[in-house]
Amino acid sequence: MNTSSLLALVIIHLFVQNGSCAYFPPIDATWQKQAETVVGSDKIGSPQGIFIDRDNTLYIADVYNYRIVKLEYGSTNVSVVLDGLDYPTDLVIDKKGTMFVAEKESLTRWPKGFHNRTILARAEWLLSVAIDPRQEHLYITDYFSNYVKKYIANGEAEQNGTVVVPNAISPWSVAINGIDTVFAASYYGSVREWKRNESGEGKVVIDQLGEPRGISLDCFGTLYIANCGGNSVVRVLAGSKTATVIAAGNGIGDAPDQLYNPADAAFDSYGNLYVSDYGNGRVQRFRINQKTLSQ
């Protein structure tokens, strides 16, 4: 590996969001057009939220198989981490190894080793969970109740929580930055932001999307969105009103350059893009172009 490649990897590692080991590539990165399947429909049924930890282990919320599974980097063996869950839709893991799972009607906490389940909160239909950069609070979206709430990550069971966005419109997913600005993706095609203690319908960051699902945010305010209805993953630079397709976007299908209702996206520490390809029952990996790392 040459010096510039090593520098690029260091940059990627510095883009740690939410203290939860999420990595992000340079904002001008590009990816190969043809993806490879890392977990196929023979091993999972309906992948939704995904998470990649410090070791590049991929965790998948396999919603209609009621479980969380994992795939270690470089392996082809998928193993079950948690089973018998209630429609798990999303997850996040903190730096201590504690997993937080968004199940249909509850937010649950599983300490490292994933035993001793604690129900932190109840919801009507919980679709997404995020953790703040200080790892103090969890943020969840309740789709039917149209709000975003926050909870104390290491707090007691059955918390009431605090409503931080009371007027979200069918919120599907949530992200949070270092100054407690909340970003929520609406089923109806937009991503909005609410600064701390701000109410109302929020500021439109980007709209005219096709049912945006999983969203993530890097340290510079770049949004990455699993654009479900557009069958693509898009990138929105801070301050921009334009969504740029960075993966797929070639119509519905199961070809290597296609997706079918993507539900979430995440990056490993090399900058490779993983997509939860919900409609095809698989997880795809789009490798980062090496010219990105050599510039």
TrEMBL record:
Signal peptide residues on this chain, from the entry's feature table: 1-21
A matching Pfam family: NHL
The keyword DNA damage appears for this protein: no
NHL repeats, residue ranges: 252-289
Keywords of the record: Repeat, Signal
An MF annotation (GO) of this entry: zinc ion binding
Gene3D superfamilies per UniProt: 2.40.10.500, TolB, C-terminal domain (2.120.10.30)
Cross-referenced PROSITE patterns: NHL
Name listed for the protein in its UniProt record: SMP-30/Gluconolactonase/LRE-like region domain-containing protein
Species assigned in the record: Adineta ricciae (Rotifer)
